[in-house]
Amino acid sequence: MGSSSEQLRDRIAVELARARSRTSLLTEVVDDGELMRQHSPLMSPLVWDLAHVGNQEELWLVRDVGGREPVRCDIDELYDAFKQPRRDRPALPLLPPAEARAYLGTVRDKVHDLLDTVAFGERPLVADGFAFGMIVQHEQQHDETMLATHQLRAGSAVLHAPPPPEPTVRVGGEVLVPAGEFTMGTDTDPWALDNERPAHRVDLPAYAIDAAPVTNGQYEAFIADGGYDDQRWWSPEGWAHRLREGLVAPMHWRRDGDEWSYRRFGRWDRVRGDEPVVHVCFYEAQAYAAWAGKRLPTEAEWEKAARWDPSTGRSRRYPWGDEDPTGAHANLGQRHLWPAPVGAYPAGVSPLGVHQLIGDVWEWTSSAFGGHPGFTAFPYREYSEVFFGDDYRVLRGGSFGTDRSACRGTFRNWDYPIRRQIFSGFRCARDARPDESYR
Ligand code: AVJ
Ligand code: FE
């Protein structure tokens, strides 16, 4: 027990440090003016995310787990995401960058202090280091949000990374998933969040799912075929949104002569056909799928394709097995600044032959966000439960900007169906035909 809790302490320290170095990078490559500015009404000024990360760490670890005196109790309201809508955040009396950084440092010092003495397992909140894992994931999620803010900022590139790997296998078409039960969700992943629990059996009819995310090349064919102008492919809400916003292509795309270019972190490039399409909203994904004669997968269909191992009947933590992701498995963690071409991650394939489920792009599903059967809010209703209902759609799998600590076969993200500043793409699915169900 002693040595395993030492290992847990070390692992938490490593994960906290990894998150913090990413936060620092994202907030050090721009000057104070840019940190305070709002780059889009959809996003917070970067300096709000920065101090909010520190404030959540103070609330959960310093005050709740540690039972320590507040570091600052005058700023809780300012950094409460529920009290301050994003568009109003730049007008708040926010901590200036230097003060925000100092605040994060003070909070982190106290967290290290309490990490030295905390007894894991004394309370459910710290069992297996959960509260620390939750805070690591919270910081990494805001880092992804800050990365999306960087994608929206004007001006030349300040973030740099090597391009993702080139394809080494040909991947295309669909994979048939046989009818039957599988285990969805988890009881055992120690840092899984409340909305991923509990594990439960789900029975699905046979279906086909795309072996890879929909690519730019495929999406361009939809555009070229007049898909944005043909109401047939759109849901009523989707069509109204498409008209209201004048959507004609994914966000950050521009027509150059007879080709498309996209803007990626301050650089314009010709659109590459074999990369997963990114920056599309749920309605665009849904319209593409209808045009292709398919539909979006349900969340359960996505998860069965990602986790179910037909040879054992069990569900894996990840498509490739139970081991944590490495650089060979998936395009995660901002190692690259855009999705990898289809066929670049053969080691990440699922037992059924489905590729790039983890990393590259968040994948829209047709499912509204809700609790798994037997859901209980933990440790607070505001993490997930208050978002349950028809307003949000679930996205799965993580993007190139998602850290591995905040990405699992069970991990669930959610957003409004109109959102496309996030790193969102999709793949299609369809019901199996009767002649396909028995191979
Ligand atoms: C799960 C990504 C929808 O960013 O709003 C951050 C994560 N929760 N702070 C979000 C989250 C509280 C959340 N998403
Ligand atoms: Fe937050």
Task: Compose a concise summary of this entry.
By secondary structure, the protein is of the alpha+beta class. It has helices spanning 2-28, 32-36, 46-65, 97-115, 130-152, 216-224, 236-245, 282-291, 299-307; strands at 174-177, 180-184, 200-204, 207-210, 253-256, 259-264, 267-270, 362-369, 389-396, 412-415, 424-425, 429-431. The strands form four sheets. A four-stranded mixed beta sheet has the order 10-9-8-11. A three-stranded antiparallel beta sheet has the order 1-4-12, with helices on one face. Strands 5-6-7 form a three-stranded antiparallel beta sheet, with no helix packed on it.
Provide tags for this entry.
single chain, 439 residues, alpha+beta, Four Helix Bundle (Hemerythrin (Met), subunit A), 2 domains, 4-stranded mixed beta sheet, 9 helices, binds fe (iii) ion, gamma-glutamyl hercynylcysteine sulfoxide synthase activity, monooxygenase, Sulfatase_Mod_Factor_Kinase, metal-binding, EgtB
